Each structure stands twice: as structure tokens, then as C-alpha cells.
Amino acid sequence: MDTIKIQLEDGDIPENWYNIASDFKTPMLPPLHPGTGEPVGPEALAPLFPMALIQQEVSQERWIEIPDEVRQVLAQWRPSPLYRARRLEKALDTPARIYYKWEGVSPSGSHKPNTAVAQAFYNREEGIKRITTETGAGQWGTALSYACQLFELECQVYMVRISFGQKPYRKAVIETYGGNVVPSPSELTEAGRKILADDPDSPGSLGIAISEAVEDAAMREDTHYALGSVLNHVLLHQTVIGLEAEKQLERAGESLPDVVVGCFGGGSNFAGFAFPFLRHKITGDQHAMRVVACEPASCPTLTKGEYRYDFGDAIGMTPLMPMHTLGHNFVPAKIHAGGLRYHGAAPLVSHALREGDIEARAYHQIECFDAGVEFARTEGIVPAPEANHVVKGAIDEALRCKESGESKCIAFNLCGHGHFDMAAYQAYFAGQLERHEFTDEMLRENMQALSELPTV
Amino acid sequence: MDTIKIQLEDGDIPENWYNIASDFKTPMLPPLHPGTGEPVGPEALAPLFPMALIQQEVSQERWIEIPDEVRQVLAQWRPSPLYRARRLEKALDTPARIYYKWEGVSPSGSHKPNTAVAQAFYNREEGIKRITTETGAGQWGTALSYACQLFELECQVYMVRISFGQKPYRKAVIETYGGNVVPSPSELTEAGRKILADDPDSPGSLGIAISEAVEDAAMREDTHYALGSVLNHVLLHQTVIGLEAEKQLERAGESLPDVVVGCFGGGSNFAGFAFPFLRHKITGDQHAMRVVACEPASCPTLTKGEYRYDFGDAIGMTPLMPMHTLGHNFVPAKIHAGGLRYHGAAPLVSHALREGDIEARAYHQIECFDAGVEFARTEGIVPAPEANHVVKGAIDEALRCKESGESKCIAFNLCGHGHFDMAAYQAYFAGQLERHEFTDEMLRENMQALSELPTV
Prior knowledge:
2 copies of one chain form a homodimer.
Chain A: E1 5-6, E2 16-18, H1 42-45, H2 51-58, E3 63-65, H3 68-74, E4 82-84, H4 86-92, E5 97-102, H5 113-125, E6 130-135, H6 139-150, E7 154-160, H7 161-166, H8 168-176, E8 180-184, H9 190-198, H10 206-219, E9 223-225, H11 232-237, H12 239-251, E10 259-263, H13 268-282, E11 290-296, H14 301-304, E12 306-311, E13 320-325, H15 347-354, E14 359-363, H16 365-379, H17 385-404, E15 409-414, H18 422-429, H19 440-448
Parallel strand pairs in A: 5-15, 6-7, 6-9, 7-8, 10-11, 10-15, 11-14
Antiparallel strand pairs in A: 1-4, 2-3, 4-5, 12-13
């Protein structure tokens, strides 16, 4: 038989997370307090996060040990398989060798539990009883609800109201895992009540839901907040993906990939896969390696956003973070890849882009679904709408190889299955997907709200 | 770390399917032609199935070789993992050791591709261009559509009309894999047109959809029919599950399980897991091993059905099969475990029950969802509503062990994830699940339609 699946053993689950901050040639800019403009110290974050995570957030250690109890939970589905996409290669008639890491085997069907489990663990260790969070499409709320259940924590999810209505099944999954979920804006927080007073029919947004979850956590002694992407410690926890993939490619007889591709929203699945490879480019001799982030053209944070200080949420409750941003007021178009609808980019990924270590590309949703359906019909797996962006990016790279006749090694991360997202495929087949443009004028308008903020 | 996952290598994918018919102490009764009452020969099935499958249907060989090309496709997700349910054991406070085989890692999320791939392969080998089938809840239609795509066959799915309306996402998945799906009864067949003429609002049934798919296949030279359960060759293809599990239990340091549990609808996932273990009971010295089939109380084929000759479809187009049946006219209550709503039982399973080799138990859906939610909250996986029946059965066995203080080894097959079925969980949490009774009077009525048929 041809090898298509490269599997590792339990013992191959990484013992350490990889912290790319330790390897950047120039240091990261610190987050700032919006009032004073001064760097935010660890103590300012203590009402929201356990100290272990805050230390990870600012750590300069290259390797950070994964607690045994976390590895024990991850061992249920990790190491996840790496596949050689032989049937896709054949259909594309490309000389490229395409590999994809498959994170859809996790209990919730995406990469999100990798960090949810770690975050729940550290909170339990610090005696926390309850965690709040926001969720858009629902993958993150599901994963955190799952992880909280395992560590006997309560979980309160604020779900963007319009998604809450469109995706009632997400509520059912979150409740199956024992979590509570309310549509946001809600009556539970001051932020929510204020928005509802102005607009009782507010559809909500990820930024508003973050504001509510942060307020809820800040108000209660026994409660912390958890974020599913963007922050340094979240990206850190996802590096198990790339570290495993590196070992798997070696076992497949490859050295390092020529092209690494990931889909990009907040940055955690992209970074989790790409950073362990990127370290060989920024600290080693892999200068020719290309690392490509694929984002939605309707929310082109990396390709059109400005690199500057901005808030992580819509209302301006978080510290200011140095990142590529479309402006915290920006409400992205309602594309089906809900997990990629975020105005900012993880500071670590923004830094890598600014340093020239990675490149970025934006795709419209219809071409991404074209790619996703081609993938399903060859590789048999129906990707989540978010993952369709990386499939499109990988296919583009493979077709370039076909033109040039080069047999490159292309590796990407397929971050989740689309079984919760079939309404999106239904709309695609019915020809109902829209092409949303992001214009320079939209950017100009969004940036006006940032004119008072400190610059990088 | 405690071992929770027992993984095998590609080389451990079975090279042969196990045919239990060769090991029964008394021979199986043959299927009969409904007109003549005579045994049906292979040639009568040739318009519907490729000869390789017909030979498997009647084979008395103990081991039947799995073609390399089929194993190559299965290798994408096989061997599937076997898990030790340590967190469930702890929650139940049971001395039992509970293991479950996890088939939800397949591309379509259930065990169905194991046979879909084999059936598509043999049809392609015989030059067939198109396959028809029926589907109820949609898992089988999805799996066959996936398999047909890989072997470049057209796939035509007749989906029970009421399910088609309730589960529009199933249509989207089937189309993503390139299959065609129509609600049944349809205008495409004489059987469908006849039923629509009598009742334009007919909700359809699995029996009607089978009639349509069979008629479609019989009419066209290039077209065959495929069934997702019940028939001998379908059960045969699923034995990869149990054969792998046997090897995995050995690796976990267990000998054979004391109790084997499976959920039961048509019989393929039950048999695929249980038959390889059962062979040690019927041919070896494992006389104390218990093998338990768990079925819905609203469709209690094994626990209340009569063992006799009956049709496989609603209209009476198939050969007569010797099986436990509730009567081919019976339309089961609309429970959420759509995959278990079938009036009959696979002849091989019926035979094993009659011989006293297995036992059967019926559960109501609410107690099954209770069990499924407990499983999700401990093991992290949300089971399909069908699979909740086996979870309930396994938990019952584990609680018996707690009472008796016995540390038994309980093994079961978790045949699929519930990510397509969250509407059912939603109804469960909303307290909207009904308790459907099956009465002796219903059985008497159903059996009247069978009074003219030959007896066993």
C-alpha cells in the first residue's frame, strides 16, 4: 500500500510548547494600558487570567513544559494524523507533494481544544470555579465548554446574537458539554444592557461578546476569562500541531516543507502549525521556506490592515495590542467562515509579517468553497468554511508547481471538519454566496476611530 | 501517562473479512422467491449486485480477502482507535473496565464507509457506472456518495421525504461528495409515482425508498443497487471493526471481553463489532461471554419481533428473508435514532439470536440520551442518537458490575458522532422527546400482512 497516513505514538505528543517570541530577531512591542499609554504589567491581567498563563504570555523561554495532566487529555486524539494528499495531487496533476495535518479528529471537531484544555487546567490549578468567554461561529465556545467539563469548572459563553439564532445547534453542543450559553448582547452585563438600550435588535459582534465576557469575569472573584485565539499563550498551546507535523514529515522521508500554508483569522491555528516550521527559517538556514497565511478578502487583516496599537474588543476594554488591524469598530461581512471574522491579527503573527518572515494572501469565499468541494471529492473530508481558505491556498501553490514543473513539498493545517457548517455548503450549491469587497475607503473610515491611540 | 488510546498501525488493518456464516452450528435458511417460494439463486440478484458481492452473500468461507485497493482507501482512517473509558468508569464508580471502538473518525463520521467503499469498488470492477440507494437519517447516503466519488461512479440517493425536509444539511453533504439526492416517494420511479398518486403528501418511509432505489437499478443496464445494512455481505465488510478491536484489546493486556455490546438497527454496526468476538464463543471455549444487542423500544425487532420470512422493503419487491421482523408494513415511530428505524433484522443476527448466541435489550430514547450526555461529559465525544443506545447498554452493564463488585471487561462499538444530530439533543434538553410504546396489538396487526408468506 502507498502510505497516505503518517501516525505517531502517544509518546510523540510534544513535551513542550514552542515559544516563537524567544526567537524573533527584534523584540515584540508590549501591550499598553489605554489610559496611561504605559506597558501593561502582569498584575493588570490577574483579574482575568491565572498567573501561569500570564507568565506564558510574556515568557522569553523557547520551550515551555506541557503539564502531564494536559498531555493526558490531549492523548485522546493526539498525535493527530498527517496525510499525504495523493488523490488531490493526482486530480490537480501536480508534481508537488501535498501534506495536511488533520485536527478534525478532536472531540469538538477542530483544533480549539488544544488550548481550551490547557487554559481550563491552569484555571483549575489556581482555584478558579468558573470561566467566561465569547464565541462567534461556536467552535471556541464548544471547545471551552468541553474542557471546563473535564476539569469541573462552570463555563459561561456569550455567543454573538446573530450566530446564536442562525446556529441553534451550537447551543445544543455547548449544553451537552454542560456549558451555559446566552446570546450577546445580553442583559447579564452592563456592556450588554447599554447596547440593548440603544438598539434592542442589535445583532451583536465578536467585539461586543468579548466586552461582556471580560466584564463578567472582572466582576467575580471565582471567575476568569478565556480567549480562543490572538493572545501569545493561546498561539503557544497550538504549537503541538506543528511540532507533531515536523516529526511526521521527517518520518515520511521529507526534510522541511518548501511551502507552509495556514488559514488566518485571529491567528492560533495558523501559528500553531506554522511557527514550529518558521523557527527553522528565522533561526536556521531554511531561508527559502515560504510561510503563507490565507485570510478572507472581506476581512483582510494581514493584507490590508495597518500595523499599529488597537483594542482587542469592540468597546475598548482590553489593553492595546500591537497588531495588524482593520480597526476595532470594524464589523466584517457575514461570510460563512465565522471563525475568520476578526478585526485584528495576533501580535505574534503581526510581528512575523512585519519582519518579512511570512507572507499573506486574501481569498473570496466562493473560490474557497470551490477548493473545499474539490478537496472533499478527492480526499473525502469536508472542511470547515474557515479551512477552505487554506485548501484554496495550498491548491494555488500546487498549481504553481504544475506550471513550473517543480516538485515542492507543500504542508498545511486542516483545522476542522464542516459537519456543523453544511448550511454554508447548501448556500454555496444554491449560488447564494456573496462576494464581499473590502475597500480602501472602509479602511480609512475604520482608522479614524484609532487616531487618538498611541502609535507603534 | 495512563493509556487511554490503543492505536494500531496501517499493517494491522485486517487482510480478510470474517464470515460468521461458516461457523454457525446450524446452517442459515436461504432467501426465498416471493412468487415461487423457492430459494433464490445468485443469478436472480445479478441485476442488482455485482457477482463478487453475490458470492460473498452466499459464501461459506470463513475468511474473505479484502482487495488491496479497498484497504488502501480504508487506511485513511483505519485502524480506528480503541479507547479505555477511564473517565466514564470513574464517574460511574464501577470496577468494570470499559473499552469502546471509535468509528466516528471516518470521513463521513460513522462506520458506514467500511462497506460503502467495498461495494463501490466491486461495482466499478464489474464496469458499473451508477449506483442507487435509499437513506433515512442520511448517514448511509452520505457514505455511499463519498465512496462512489472515489471510484468515479454516479450515485443516486432516494431519501425518505420527511427526513429530506427535516435534515436539509444531509442533501448538502451528499452533494458535496458529488451524489444526487431526491426526496422519496419521487416522480422518478413507478413505485414513487404510484404512491404519490394515492397520497401526494406521503412522508415516505425507508421501505418505500428501497422500492424506488431497487426499481431504478433494475431498469438500467449500467446501474446497480447498494444496501447499507441487513445483507450478509454488508455485515461481512463491517467485521474490520471487531477484528481490529480484538487485536487492540490484546495489546491493552486484556484477553477477550466478558461483555460485548452494540446498538442494533439493521445489524451491520452490531455485527461488525460483535461477530469477530462471537466466533470465540461459538467455535471456542468462551462460553461465558455475553453479546448484547441494544435496540429502540419503539422498534423492538429482536426483543418483540417474530422470526419468520418477510420482505426487506415496504412494497414487497425484495426476496423473502428469514429474520426477526415487526412486519414489512410497520412504520416505526419518529425517534431521533433514524438509523435504527427498520422493521427487520439482518438474517445473520436473527440466526445468532435464535441459536442463543446473543441476547437483546430494548431502550426508550430518553434514557439513551441521558446516557449519551453522561458519555459526552466524561469521554468528551458526543455520540450519534443511534450510538446512545449502546452507551446506555454499556453503562447498565458497568453498573451491574458495581453492584456485584465484579471487574468485568466491557467492550462496545461507538459507531458515529452526533455532530449532524444536534437537533435531537436540542429536543432532549427542551424536554420534547417522546416515549413511544410498541404494543402487542401493533405486532398482531403488522403480522396479519404476512399471513400468506411461507413460514420458516
